[in-house]
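Lab notebook page, bench 4
Experiment: in silico fold of construct C2
Operator: M.H.
Input chain length: 304 residues
Purpose: comparison with the prior construct
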Amino acid sequence: MRHPIAALALLAIATSAVAATPAAPPRTMDEILAAAPAEHWRTPDPDNLLVMTLETGTIVIELSPEHAPEHVANLRTLAREGYFDGLTINRSQDNFVVQWGDANGEDPAKAKSLGKAKAALPAEFSTRIRDGLAFTRLPDVDGWAPQVGFSAGFPVGRDPQAGTQWLAHCYATVGAGRGNAPDSSNGTELYVVTGQAPRQLDLNITSVGRVLDGMHRLSAMPRSLAPGGFYTQPALRTPIRRIALASALPEPQRPGLQVMDTGSASFDALLEARRNRADAWYLRKAGHIDLCNVPIPVRPAPDR
């Protein structure tokens, strides 16, 4: 039998060894991304991807049927019907949004036909919280929602008491423009947030998705000084060559992108790394981050 004093000595040595082992240094975002296994990345459904083609290149938008099912269904129809092809970007308001659609949409005599798409849809400012939809909660207090976090790859706000959830207006969020009537949007007028997150729009307008790739092309649009940032001269509008569903494109033309799974352990680590920056430049760890300051990483698919 081992003597009690010897056992205590061994325990003290073991404890000392554990205490002497230095803690692993916190990882930076780049290190987390480099170490993220393949299963922590997802390939978006091509039936949820809009590919916008401008003269300067393409923009890829991921739609969120979980948060705006009727608008997403209508957008799929509009894309299949070629509704946006030949229309224009009509607005660029500094530190706010870039908007596109039919510049003649309010004139029944000149408006482009919607084809088989619906002219009227219900407002989808929020949807019901569903147990089957994963939610990665951000621990920090938010001024716009009782809870915030990430669901199905998108930044969201939630109100558990009301049982509702909604897409938050962060940079690159895409929404459906409307008039004064809550149910006056149908997806024919779309905008993307290009400035400081206008969270006051949350629960006041239907958000349909976010730009995954090509934001530099939209955010670089010339600002208009006219009211609302609308281009008053048709020549200033940027033509849209095409907006198509990725699922309708030949395989070689589809975007080869992957998005980090916001329900993965790698994304959990990324959240903490952004809340408490480990980069050598940072002298103070904030211990807090705003919902819209958390990046959702996108990368080229390894096989592309």
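Observations: The chain has five helices and 17 strands. The CA atoms of residues 268 and 301 lie 21 Å apart.
Next step: discuss at group meeting.
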